[in-house]
From TrEMBL:
It comes from Dyadobacter psychrotolerans. GO terms for biological process: galactose catabolic process via UDP-galactose, Leloir pathway; glucose metabolic process. Monomer. Its cofactor is Ca(2+). PANTHER family: ALDOSE-1-EPIMERASE (PTHR10091), GALACTOSE MUTAROTASE (PTHR10091:SF0). Pfam families: Aldose_epim. InterPro entries: Aldose_1/G6P_1-epimerase, Gal_mutarotase_sf_dom, GH-type_carb-bd. Keywords: Calcium. It comes from the Bacteria. This is Aldose 1-epimerase. GO terms for molecular function: aldose 1-epimerase activity; carbohydrate binding. CDD domains: Aldose_epim.
């Protein structure tokens, strides 16, 4: 078999590597640090591109406050003042966004995940991780959250999440992934982007949604001198939607495909950091502040589950 899974030390934590020895495609996963993907390398022709930007050392990764590659659950983005109301009851989350009074990006960041399964097959290999949430501050529910990472021989990297309500009461759930992507040594100014949307979410000064407005840029859109920190409502006639990050100079396109439809990834956040060296492409299952506005929010009854898939590839 060309696929293998092996582990090695990364500072004080253990990382797992899924690798295809034929293509060189590989992903590096850290179960003990929020279950994140630390590296993702995919081949296009003769070039093996490292496409995920994350802090380079164990300590900078632990200290990272920008959520590089993090799994955002049971909510993503901001909840103002950390307050939300669910089924008539008010809840208070920790206010953990730097410089604000917001709660941000969920409760599983940097937590130690359990390794549930690792499989090696002829055409792909996979790793499944899980984390159980039970009676946490501001989220007194019993939910098992899991993520499966798969790397295929055709170059697809697939992330599939699942949430199962193990409690006796309904619970609100939202999931998002927060990867920063880049293409070689170019910066944002050199790229174009295809955004599968014609509606953008409007924000107030606290980055909380106030409504929507048309998004009418021609696609693909040049990123030169454009700053993005926006949420988009996905538009597609299929059951998936694709965001494309395009480098004409390197003749490569990075594709982030998100499953859409009822309960799936119907929102997308795009962000260009000040360094202009990467783009955050963040599929979300609900709108920013979904715990309060209910837009896209999944409500799980006891013993019910929800899942969804994100696929990354190069062309």
């Amino acid at each position: 078999m060309s696929f293998e899974i092996f582990k090695q030390q990364f500072g004080e934590v253990t990382e797992y590597i899924i690798q295809d020895s034929v293509t060189g495609n590989r992903c590096v996963i850290l179960p003990e640090l929020g279950g994140i993907v630390r590296q993702l390398s995919l081949r296009k022709g003769l070039t093996l591109f490292s496409v995920l930007k994350t802090p380079p050392t164990p300590q900078t990764l632990k200290d990272d406050s920008k959520s590089a590659s993090e799994l955002l659950f049971p909510f993503a983005s901001r909840i103002p003042e950390g307050k939300y109301k669910f089924l008539g009851q008010e809840y208070q989350l920790a206010k953990n966004e730097s410089g604000t009074t917001n709660a941000i990006h969920g409760l599983v960041r940097k937590q130690k995940f359990n390794l549930e399964e690792q499989l090696v097959n002829a055409d792909h290999a996979s790793l499944k991780l899980s984390f159980s949430l039970k009676d946490l501050e501001g989220y007194p529910f019993d939910v098992k959250f899991s993520v499966m990472y798969q790397l295929f021989a055709d170059g697809r990297f697939v992330l599939t999440y699942e949430a199962v309500n193990n409690g006796i009461e309904p619970c609100p759930v939202m999931f998002g992934w927060h990867p920063y992507f880049y293409l070689g040594n170019e910066d944002v100014e050199a790229w174009k982007i295809n955004i599968p949307s014609d509606q953008i979410v409007t924000f107030d000064d606290n980055m909380i949604p106030t409504g929507t407005e048309p998004f009418a840029y021609d696609q693909p859109m040049l990123l030169h001198r454009k700053e993005l920190d926006n949420c988009f409502i996905i538009k597609s006639t299929a059951n998936t939607a694709v965001t494309e990050l395009i480098s004409d100079n390197k003749h490569v396109t990075l594709k982030v495909e998100q499953e859409i439809g009822e309960g799936k990834f119907n929102y997308l956040v795009l962000y260009t950091p000040p360094a202009r060296d990467c783009v955050a492409i963040e599929p979300l299952t609900a709108n920013v502040n979904g715990f309060n506005n209910g837009e896209g929010l999944n409500i799980l009854a006891s013993a019910n589950s929800i899942s969804g898939t994100i696929t990354v590839s190069l062309s």
